[in-house]
Amino acid sequence: MNEGEILIGTNPDSLDSTVLPATPEEKAKQLPEPTGYHILCTIPEVEAKYSTGLLKSDISMRHEEVLSTVFFVMALGPSCYKDSSRFPYKQDPETGEMVPAPWCKVGDFILARPTSGTRLKIHGREFRIMNDDSVEAVVEDPRGISRA
């Protein structure tokens, strides 16, 4: 183990140890790859001020993050929107085949219930892994959208 590394586990069958990543590139590789019909989302940055210009308290910002209804789609699992009994299929104009018509894609801002999915934090940033049928809407510009 090198100086500055944090030991997080060892393998009794090997002399190698597992350490936390040190560089931003290594940290980016820690993002989970969604499996099955799951979607990996992140929460857009919470504004630090109210529209009046007053600063928000840390607890207010934390509540907005935890109870957010707006998410940014980062990755889709391989089975997302492929169940024809739950999601509509459309005809591909070029091939004539019936293909899935996904509700969202990577890079979309979506609306979902604040309690949707599994919450996890990676390097201080909150992510959610949610089911593909948790998506309630796609929005072009999430600014100005808040819980009622």
Describe the structure in brief.
This protein has helices at residues 24-28, 58-66; strands spanning 7-10, 17-19, 38-42, 70-76, 89-91, 98-100, 109-111, 118-122, 125-131, 137-139. By secondary structure, the protein is mainly β.
Give a structural overview.
It is a single chain. The protein is globular and about 55 Å long. Mean pLDDT is 84; it is low at 5-9. It has 148 residues and is mainly beta. It contains 2 helices and 10 strands; from the N terminus they run E-E-H-E-H-E-E-E-E-E-E-E. The strands form 3 sheets. It has a 6-stranded antiparallel sheet with strand order 8-9-3-4-7-10, with no helix packed on it. The termini are far apart. It is 9% helix and 29% strand. The chain has 2 domains: 1-30, no CATH class; 31-139, 10 Kd Chaperonin, Protein Cpn10, Chain O (Roll). The relative contact order is 0.20.
- The total strand number stands at 10
Judged by helices, strands and strand pairing, the structural class is mainly beta
Radius of gyration (CA) equals 20 Å
Indicate the multimeric state.
single chain
Q: Considering DSSP H and I runs of 4 or more, what fraction of the residues is helical?
A: under 10%
- The CATH homologous superfamily of the largest domain is named GroES chaperonin
- Count of helical regions: 2
Number of domains: 2
